[in-house]
Amino acid sequence: MTALFCPKCGKDAGVFYDNVCSQCFIGDKKLLECPQVLYSRICPTCGSIFKRGKWSLKEDESETIISCVKDALKLEKQACNIELTISPKQLDYSRYGVHVEAIAKIKDAPVDAALDVEVRISWETCDTCSRISGGYFEGIVQVRADGRLPTGEELERCKNIAGDVAVRAQEKGDRLAFIAKTEELDEGADLYVGSIKLGKQICRAIIDVFGGKFSESPKLVGQKNGEDLYRITFALRLPEFVRGDIISADGMVIEVQSCGKHVSGIDLETGKRFIENFNDLMEVKKLSRREDAVPAVLVSDEGRTIQVMDPHTFETVTIKRPEFLSAEAGNEIKVVKTAKGIFVMP
After folding, report:
1. CA neighbor of 73 nearest in space, from 33, 37, 28
2. SS3 (DSSP) at 328
3. Global pTM value
4. Rg of the Cα trace of the chain?
5. Residue 302: CB partners within 8 Å, gap ≥ 6?
6. Which pLDDT tens digit goes with each residue over 34-45?
7. What is the pLDDT of residue 313?
8. Lower CB count within 10 Å: N or C terminus of the chain?
9. Residue 194 neighbours by CB distance under 10 Å
10. Which CA distances in Å does 189 have to 42, 192, 234?
11. Residue 18 confidence class, pLDDT cut points 50, 70, 90
12. Regarding the domain delimited by 31-123, which CATH topology (the fold level of the hierarchy) does it fall under?
C-alpha cells in the first residue's frame, strides 16, 4: 500500500483537509481565545449582576461567572459543532478559577482546545439599591377605607399584594419596581414606591381583591434634563363594608360575607344567597354588625312566617321565615334589630 505524505510538512497522513494533514490544516487557527483575567460586577445587597451594559436580576453566582466567561470567549469563525465545558471553582470571596474545554470541527477536521481564566468579582451597589438607600421614591400609595379604619388583616393583605406586584414587575425587568418603605398609621398605611407605574399596578391589584377606588394627585418636585419631575400620591380607598356588616342594599337587608368588586352574603329576610356587583348597587347603607345580635325567643313557626319576641320591648313580632332557620318554637335564637326591622341571624 502506497504511503501518503502531507505536501506541506512531509508527515504520513491518512486523511487530508484542503490537501494537507489535519495538523497543517489547523495551523495557527485558535479555537478558543479569552483574556486571562475577567471582571464581573455584582451588587452585595440584592445580588443583581451588571452585564451587557446594565444591571440585571439576581442569578446563581456560578451562573454569573459562566456567563461572564462565555461573553468574553472568542471562537474560531470556521468552527462548527462546538461543545463547550466551563467549570468554575471559587478561590475566595471575590475570585473564581475557570477551566474551559472545547471540542469542535473545522471543515470536518476535529479540533479541541482548553484554557484557564480567572474571574474577579467587583462588589458594587446597583442603581436600585443606591436609590433605596437614598430614600428615592416616585409615588406614595395611601391605603385607607371609606367611613371606617381598615383592619389589621386588610392592611397586611394589602402589603402582601403590593410586595407580590413588585416582585412580578422586577422579574419582567422593571428595576424601579421596589417598595422603598412602609409607614404604619392610625388611619391606614403608606407605601412608598420606586415608580409611578408600580403605584398604579399596586392600586389596581388591591382593588381587584377588595374593590374600592383610587385617585391620583401629582406634585412637582423638580426638573431633570429640562423635564418636570413629579411625585404622585395614590389615594386608595377600600370599600366601607367588611365581613359581618349588616347593610341595606337596594331594599334588601344583607349580612356581608365578602366585599370586593362584588358584594356577597346572605339575604336575612329570605335566607337566600346574595351576590351583586358593588358598583351596580344604588342605595347601600350600613345598619348594624353581627356582633350586635342578641338572644330572642322564637315564639312560633307558621311555615312562611315566624313570631319572635322583640328583645327590647318583649312584644311579639311577625317576620318572614328565612330558609336557614332550623330552630323550633320555644328555642332561643340570635336576632339583630335594625331600622329596617328585626332579622334572624344565620
Report:
1. 33
2. coil
3. 0.63
4. 36
5. 321
6. 899 999 999 988
7. 87
8. N
9. 24
10. 33, 10, 12
11. low
12. Immunoglobulin-like (2.60.40)
